[in-house]
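Same chain as my last thread, 231 residues:
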Amino acid sequence: MDDSDTNFGTYTGSPKKVYRLFKEKWQAECFLKGDIWLSTLEECRNYENSEQGDPNEGKQVHLVSSVSGSPAEPRIQEIARRQGIEIGTSGGGGSISISQNVHTSVHENSYLLCTSKVYNERLKDVFGQYVVEITDVYEFNSRLSFSLFDQFKIFQGMAGEVQYTKQTYLDLEPIPKREIFLIKDNRYEYQKEFRFVWRAHKPMIKPFLFSCPSLSYLCKWVPYNMVTSLG
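reply #2:
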């Protein structure tokens, strides 16, 4: 993918502000200064705590029972597309059969910053009691995305609300028209997650600490006695 595909941070979603939660006070203080720890999809897949991580991050499974028909039929074309199968639609007719197939789509490993639209006791128990508010999501996303590209050529940033639904689909069941890294299982719905995601040119990436001091103007400490109003 060349630089013509660069996207400095598409923003999809409605919240103006979101919250980042921390277990330790020093972690929140670093964030307030613009020192941002960027995780990765792969890192989240490997968390031992199943509430903090999800082995199915950025994954989608498509099952086929048994279908057959002409390669020119739209339903056959769609099922083949979901299965990652290339079929031709011209020529001398014929038919194709797909039976008992399983195809798993896995989004490439990407950098990730997870936040929430709310704060409540359950989130506190899972992610921590120290809360930082990002006061302007659009501006935060723009500044961080531009800085990442400028320094590391990290590109194609996207920010959006997570949609909670199933991640396994049979035959022609409707599939959400959404990037699969913005889809999670229903069991995580209480987290009301809003996430920032960035792709990179290099295939092997690891979490790292990124310093962007200009973000400090968009981050605000939330005192503990105020958090009950955020849920």
